[in-house]
Amino acid sequence: MAIFTELKTKYADYRLNKINKLENSITNQIGSIKAAPTSPNKVMPDKLEITLKTLPKQLSIAKNMENTVKTLKHNPSDPKSTAKSEFIRKFEDYAHSIGMDKVSYSKVPQELIFKDKSILFDNAIILISEMDKNSVDMAPSPQTQEMGIVTYDDHGKKTNQLAEFLRERGYASHASHPAGGVVIYTWLAQNAGLGHVGKHGMLITPEFGPRQRISAIFTSINNLPIEESDNHSWIPNFCEKCKRCINNCPENAFVEDKSSETGETMTRVIKDLCHGCTICMKECSFNKREYAQIKSKFQNLKNRII
Ligand code: SF4
Ligand code: SF4
């Protein structure tokens, strides 16, 4: 992509290596999205109709992933590194006005960056938007699939829009698309205090349970209002008792292993078995009942046992 040649000229400094990594990662991700509609392994017969129906959205996702890189050339060459609280409020108001449901902040630990991928700054703004509950509750269905793709596209466009908002006000930004990021979003969102990762590997939040899209913007703002919180650290204990996601997966795609080092049970999804039916999201206890209700019942139960 010609854009990378341009960026390499602009950032002929320590960021060159990061831009090379970005070029590889974005090119690979776009390749896999464009290939998906015709890949026999990825498209089941009953999904063909929805795949064709959502083709424009899928191409839009690919274009907006490309835009996360193309727009880097709009970054100011001498970006500002601090922001007043009024500016952060203004940013959050704008994010909410265009449909982002939650905004939070975190430093990015190195271990959350995917191998061979790179970010321009380790200051992250994490963005969340809700996935429609009615559509999730229809899983597995074409409607659920369509909603999933539409929200990826919508959330990705808004993430790019917010990165531009920052640039226009003197801050450098690197947007990361929800459909193919460079970091583990769920863990980053957990670090930012938005919720906790459940046994199914998705983020669980008080507002939307497991139903959200997540993206990030890496920015030159060094003084983001990061708040540490472990409000949701009770969730793994609840998951150990629940396991609805594991028990309801039609493909038995979940595997539980005991870590030889810590003795802890780790759950992972066998990628080749998972066809993205969304049943584990639908069946999650946090999609069935309110967060506060589950928390209070679980706490009462624990108190009675103790
Ligand atoms: S998306 Fe469907 S197949 Fe994949 S892990 Fe969840 S329930 Fe199992
Ligand atoms: S279904 Fe149960 S075990 Fe699975 S993530 Fe949700 S709460 Fe945890």
The biggest beta sheet, please?
A: 4 strands, antiparallel
Extended strand count = 8
As residue ranges, the low-confidence spans are 37-45
- The percentage of residues in β strands lies in 5-15%
Q: From the helix content, strand content and strand pairing, which structural class follows? A: alpha+beta
What's the number of helices? 13
Description:
- There is one protein chain.
- This protein is α+β, with helices and mostly antiparallel strands and 306 residues long.
- It has two domains: 2-219, no CATH class; 235-305, Alpha-Beta Plaits (2-Layer Sandwich), CATH 3.30.70.
- The protein has helices at 2-10, 15-35, 48-53, 55-70, 85-97, 133-137, 142-168, 185-191, 235-242, 244-248, 279-283, 285-288, 291-305, and strands spanning 102-107, 123-130, 173-176, 196-197, 203-204, 212-219, 254-258, 265-269.
- A four-stranded antiparallel β-sheet has the order 1-2-6-3, sandwiched between helices.
- Strand 7 (254-258) and strand 8 (265-269) form a beta hairpin.
- Bound molecules: iron/sulfur cluster (2 copies).
- One iron/sulfur cluster binds at residues 249, 251, 253, 269, 274-280.
